[in-house]
Amino acid sequence: xxxxxxxxxxxxxxxxxxxxxxxxxxxxxxxxxxxxxxxxxxxxxxxxxxxxxxxxxxxxxxx
Length: 63
Hints:
Layout: E1 4-7, E2 10-13, H1 15-28, H2 33-60
């Protein structure tokens, strides 16, 4: 199952871009600014965690 989002001229596939774009849409349309900020920072946090795990996985192959 894949997450996809399209809106306000942006599109994304995967959990990180979906959270970030959904947060931008929620904040830009004033539907719920707090939930929008939470979604944006949640997407950024998950992206950083996935990136860190990727780096650890690559580095662990050489040690």
